[in-house]
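Design a sequence for this backbone.
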């Protein structure tokens, strides 16, 4: 019964369980507003200041009608920019009359009628971050207004705070909210500047731990890195907040969004969707409504998960669950798929001869005798929940396909398939197959016999070019079919390979070469323009300290651009700097070759003259042009690689 509950029960029932099984520590005395991390939606990540009451009503309808509310998403949160530019004649905050003509109370009623709660936003400063009136020294009156309107949640920001002590400012609002008598969640948004994990629980239910998230892989992983060690401060009514979800906003792949959601659930993070819920595509909806992961996030014990292993690109994160099981995330930051193994004994679950294993993305149930393998896509996550004892008759089996990231179109290459059997019964004899794209063939044919297997079976294949295969990205797939525990099972695996024809010859502009991969703090890396706003092709002419450059790359920290050189080039050169189009920004430029740093600039500031950068890339197969935030944050970090060229 317990097991069934743990696996299937929704966040709503889990909160009820929290009360029944309790007792969750009440962070703010007398209040038990968030025994589990909050779930809901917030307008900022997708809409910024482009918000009005129609958007909020339509989002309420989408949440109530589209399955989000029933999956546990309850808070409908309006972020910055809902206010009129001035307070009213009574010195009260008022909504913008054009965009919110019916007022906030009407929206609260609208939300409540649909089983939702309404959240609103202000700043512990004189103005919000977008420059609207905010609540510093108006705490009592503003809290009363929020309560009168029927608001259930306040996100309280940190802009324009006049350098007054954070604790004072947040305490003032906390006291004011409590004095209203209406239970209102207080979400402290002071960006982790004053270690709020050490004091936030006295005043509110959750606190941001970092700067703002952006819809990019490097932003998501950068924030993840800053959560290490904070797990000790989190618990019922006192949650670390690594910021809202970017799932569905379009600048990461679904694989990356699944990893983002998996890790946020493991961290007991608030699950506050940040996309347009009126038009979630099916893949996004499936991620956000993954009930198994929501159950991990909302587990009534409220123990935040943490990193238990870091092998560089591969990380293992685990979270103890209240029913004696554990959730484990196998995370791969690398550019190729990873074959990852962990032992149930390392997850903190009770020792047992056998474990029940549930894959929380596929729903597949199996058993293991102790080892847990997972094949994790590049930038992906595999999540298992592991219970001591029991489990399906079928063993946990996984197939990994190990291929080089780059293949030379003129040469054969080898790939390896590895089949792991983590369960008790032997796998019966079967067959395995490797499929290759056109222009390539497998030596000795694409099919081999798979012998009876106890633990592991590996096989190496040679893939040979037939004629001249086309350059560009291709996918290799492998499958293994066998019988076990009375069932026919097929496992498959895929590996992306980039086929490179001749490496660049002579001198080439980097902006004219294909990228092996690229990632960027804000929108895509631009070719021959600055980073611009957020979309491809919206940059301006590359300009550093008043000088314009016709070619180069327009990046935004943190950024990485990888280019194939095939060991046949001598030097990479560029003039680097922060683009004039911003009003600030400090960055550092680095050139890496095959995982080693070859050259770097140190900190470069907005307004500095372009810095000449040269790296010796003799023998380097893949060069990586990286930009870091220069040691502060990524605000205004528009970084130009003006005239970036390779000499081969
Ligand atoms: C800050 C917060 C964001 C968002 C904006 C609104 O940057 O950290 O989450 O609320 O302000 O202006």
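Sequence:
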């Amino acid at each position: 019964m317990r097991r069934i509950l743990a696996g299937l029960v929704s966040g709503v029932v889990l909160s009820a369980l929290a009360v029944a099984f309790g007792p969750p520590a009440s962070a703010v005395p007398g209040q038990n507003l968030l025994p589990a991390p909050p779930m809901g939606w917030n307008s900022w990540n997708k809409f910024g200041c482009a918000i009005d009451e129609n958007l909020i009503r339509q989002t309420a309808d989408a949440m109530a009608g589209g399955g989000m509310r029933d999956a546990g998403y309850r808070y409908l949160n309006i972020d910055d920019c809902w206010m009129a530019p001035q307070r009213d004649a009574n010195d009260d905050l008022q909504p913008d009359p054009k965009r919110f003509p019916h007022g906030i109370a009407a929206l609260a009623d609208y939300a409540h009628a649909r089983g939702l709660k309404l959240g609103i936003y202000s700043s512990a400063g004189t103005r919000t971050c977008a420059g609207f009136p905010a609540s510093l020294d108006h705490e009592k009156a503003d809290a009363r207004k929020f309560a009168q309107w029927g608001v259930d949640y306040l996100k309280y920001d940190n802009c324009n705070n006049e350098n007054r002590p954070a604790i004072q400012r947040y305490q003032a609002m906390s006291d004011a909210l409590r004095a209203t008598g209406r239970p209102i969640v207080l979400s402290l948004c002071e960006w982790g500047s004053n270690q709020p994990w050490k004091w936030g629980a006295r005043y509110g239910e959750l606190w941001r731990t970092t700067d703002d998230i952006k819809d990019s892989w490097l932003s998501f992983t950068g924030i993840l890195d800053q959560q290490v060690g904070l797990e000790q401060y989190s618990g019922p009514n006192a949650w670390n907040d690594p910021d809202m979800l970017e799932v569905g906003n379009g600048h990461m792949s679904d694989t990356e969004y699944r990893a983002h959601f998996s890790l946020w659930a493991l961290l007991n993070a608030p699950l506050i969707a940040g996309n347009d819920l009126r038009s979630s595509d099916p893949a996004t909806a499936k991620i956000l409504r993954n009930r198994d992961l929501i159950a991990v996030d909302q587990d009534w014990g409220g123990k935040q998960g943490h990193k238990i292993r870091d092998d560089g690109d591969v990380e293992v994160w685990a979270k103890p669950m209240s029913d004696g099981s554990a959730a484990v995330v196998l995370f791969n930051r690398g550019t190729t798929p990873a074959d990852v193994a962990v032992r149930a004994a390392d997850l903190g679950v009770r020792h047992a001869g056998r474990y029940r294993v549930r894959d929380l993305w596929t729903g597949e149930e199996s058993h293991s005798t102790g080892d847990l393998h997972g094949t994790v896509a590049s930038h992906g996550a595999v999540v298992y929940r592991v219970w001591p004892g029991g489990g399906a008759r079928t063993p946990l089996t996984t197939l990994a396909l190990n291929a080089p990231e780059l293949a030379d179109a003129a040469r054969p290459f080898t790939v390896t398939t590895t089949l792991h059997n983590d369960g008790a019964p032997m796998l019966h004899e079967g067959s395995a197959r490797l499929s290759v794209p056109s222009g390539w063939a497998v030596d000795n044919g694409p099919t081999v016999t798979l012998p009876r297997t106890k633990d592991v079976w590996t096989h190496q294949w040679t893939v040979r070019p037939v004629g001249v295969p086309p350059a560009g990205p291709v996918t290799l797939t492998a499958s293994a079919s066998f019988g076990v525990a009375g069932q026919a099972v097929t496992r498959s695996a895929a590996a992306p390979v980039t086929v490179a024809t001749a490496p660049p010859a002579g001198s080439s502009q980097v902006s004219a070469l294909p990228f092996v991969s690229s990632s960027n703090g804000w929108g895509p890396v631009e070719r021959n323009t600055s980073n611009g706003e957020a979309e491809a092709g919206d940059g301006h002419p590359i300009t550093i300290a008043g000088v314009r450059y016709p070619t180069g790359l327009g990046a935004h920290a943190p950024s990485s651009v990888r280019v194939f050189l095939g060991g046949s080039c001598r030097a990479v050169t560029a003039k680097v700097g922060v683009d004039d189009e911003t009003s600030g920004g400090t960055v550092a430029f680095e050139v890496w070759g095959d995982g080693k740093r070859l050259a770097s600039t140190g900190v470069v500031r907005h307004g500095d003259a372009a810095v000449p950068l040269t790296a010796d890339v003799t023998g380097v197969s893949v060069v990586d042009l990286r930009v870091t935030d220069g040691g502060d944050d990524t605000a205004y970090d528009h970084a130009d690689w003006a005239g970036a060229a390779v000499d081969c």
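Residues 262 and 405 are 25 Å apart (CA to CA).
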